[in-house]
Amino acid sequence: MSKAPAAPAAMTRRDYAWHRMDTEKNLMVINSILLFEGPVDMERLVSTIGHRLPNYPRFTQKVIRLRGRPHWVEDDQFDITQHIKLERMERDVPRDELQNHLTRLAHLPLERNRPMWHMTVLDRVNGGHAIVFRVHHCITDGLGLVHVLNHLTDDNGLHGRTPSPVGHPHRAVAHNPVCSAVVRAVSALKVAAHVARLSVLWPDAQTQFKTPMTGAKQLVWLPPLEMDRVRAMSKRMGVTLNDVWVAAVSGALRTYLGERGQKPDGRALRAAVTFNLREKGNAFQLGNEFGLVAVDLPTNEEAPCERLRLSSSRMTAIKRSHQPRATMAFLSIAGCLPTALQHFALNLFTSKGSVVLTNIEGPSSRRYLAGSRLTDLICWVPQAGKLGVGLAFISYAGQIQLALFVDTDLVPDPDRLMQLTYDAFEELELATQDVEAPQPVSEPALPGMVITAS
């Protein structure tokens, strides 16, 4: 028996802000790729996704305006086969060629007259097959997307042609009580204060990362890091995995600029870092539940251990502030503004930073989709406004996957920056081997910043 279609639901102002944020140079699409062992069974794959993905109404709904307000409305013409397409490769595709293929797909906007997601299945990739999963940010953030991936997949490859419903939601109810509570809790005065402090910040240091963008972008990634190595480092130093990530990126950016003749010991670069505000148990509701924090990256510090200490103390100070909730509330306000004014405000704020950083906690154990074992999961963070450099890591089954998404006018050699980021983890590991965990250092919270993805 088919499920009854979901009733139209008012779109949150924050999700509507993401819906209107696409520009020619920056699409608000979360790009990810899932790599699998063995050949693809398209019939089984489409059957599995067709049974499970519609449990989340946002994946069968489109956005239209009703009574002057944006709503999620069921797409009467929804056809799962229009969202899952097979591209047959003439031969097995190596990594470099796959990166170029993904880059081409990443430039394609999603159709706005249907549910805003798409899967491209590549049948011959690295001895197996791959799925390029593209989801518009207005549907969900990184944590919500991981929840969807967990429920599309199984913990073994034994399910039959008709997938078992065990452990999967019958029909996810998409509502957002946390959002409304947060908006009510954060007073207009606090939001105004954070926005005002940000608006008077000097624009970020004028480096190669702040040159005008053309919209020509590239996706890059490297083989994964072992989670145990990074976790051991964080425990040894008494910091979080995210602190290690921020410190490693800072070292990579410092070296990259230095190699191009720019002085890395001057002003620190500023980054927009995502900050999750969602309870994991509410991830099935989808939508966007994260704030943003402005962090002065210790790119002007030469010593790796000191970069890590500074990264940790600055992130700790921000966690204790109202900054993440204030920036989340600001996005809700942005969704009430006329489109031109929203873009103006976002361009103003994004001029204050140079890069976007995010980290995503993915599935902790191996997953299987339609009987095929998922070997690697990679996700890229989109950028908006005047930001054109995005770095992300996502954990999966004991490994950490680094990924870079950049405008090539800002970063002409993305592979070099990606390799430097990988090298920076190894530099930190070596430098911290014999260091005792330091006492926490308090620093004042930094002003808030808006724009990125989770």
Automatic annotation (TrEMBL):
- List GO molecular-function terms, semicolon-separated: diacylglycerol O-acyltransferase activity
Q: Which domain of life is it from?
A: Bacteria
Q: Which UniProt keywords apply?
A: Acyltransferase, Glycerol metabolism, Lipid biosynthesis, Lipid metabolism, Transferase
Quote a single Gene Ontology cellular component term. Answer: plasma membrane
Q: What is this protein called?
A: diacylglycerol O-acyltransferase
Family statement:
Belongs to the long-chain O-acyltransferase family.
Whether Signal counts among this entry's keywords is no
Question: What organism does the UniProt record list as the source?
Answer: Duganella sacchari
Domain O-acyltransferase WSD1-like N-terminal residues, every copy: 14-244
Q: Specify the pathway.
A: Glycerolipid metabolism; triacylglycerol biosynthesis; Lipid metabolism
